[in-house]
Amino acid sequence: MKQRYHNSQKEVKGMNTSELREQFLIEDLMTNGEIKLTYSHYDRIIVGGAVPTNGSLALENFPMLRAEFFLERREMGVINVGGHGSISVDGKAYDLAKKDCLYIGRGSKEISFSSKDAGTPAEFYILSAPAHKEYPTTLMKEADATPVTLGSAETSNHRTIYKYIYADGIQSCQLVMGLTTLKTGSVWNTMPSHVHDRRMEAYFYFDLAADQTIFHFMGEPQETRHMTVHNNQAIISPPWSIHSGCGTSNYSFIWGMGGENQDYGDMDAVAITDLK
């Protein structure tokens, strides 16, 4: 499991492109036959991906967690962005089609991932946060995620939002998790921008054509930077940073947060004309 440490606003102002990518971009999340994990020191979030191709993949423990097992003091949200698959939690199997979400509560010991068809494997996006209380492992299907369509073609942000783990959905200690799908012809996400000093956020971009890219904007509102992001790659966003993106075509992305609260509306808006 790789580690990423904190970076202050002052540090980020002086970073070049390769330094920004090294600190905030996760490029190799989805690798056939492997589980890839990155530990961020922003709110102790773990970002990962699991792509089972040759049988099931078991989630191992890591010495750096100083725990008896991975979720001894953690919780986890998983969204499938690939073919049909299943997740086994302490002997109980949960079937996940594309865009289904499974919350796995603290104290769950044996977790494994599998695909129905190795030719079109499941691709499980993983987000894990520290937890102080047990909540039940819960499956939510895409259709049950209360989809809401917002934006418009005129502003290039016509999109559907699916909320899974949040105050009025699947219960958790601190995880908040869902996904957004942009309509054909729409390319902007999270514009106007915002920050939320009380929570970090991670973005995972998927369903982007291989020959297309996304320009992800980060940094303080008056000191922005950007990185190019491709399909099945993730961004770690510090609490003080904006997190907006613009693609060369439409795409989908999973948003996930951990921090002081679970209030979906806890954000400090930034006017478009104030960005620099």
From TrEMBL:
InterPro entries: KduI (IPR007045), KduI/IolB_isomerase (IPR021120), KduI_N (IPR027449), RmlC-like_jellyroll (IPR014710), RmlC_Cupin_sf (IPR011051). Binds 1 zinc ion per subunit. One of its GO terms (biological process) is D-glucuronate catabolic process. Pfam families: KduI (PF04962). Zn(2+) binds at residues 194, 196, 201, 243. Keywords: Isomerase, Metal-binding, Zinc. Belongs to the KduI family. NCBIfam families: PRK00924.1 (NF002091). This is 4-deoxy-L-threo-5-hexosulose-uronate ketol-isomerase. It comes from Pelobium manganitolerans.
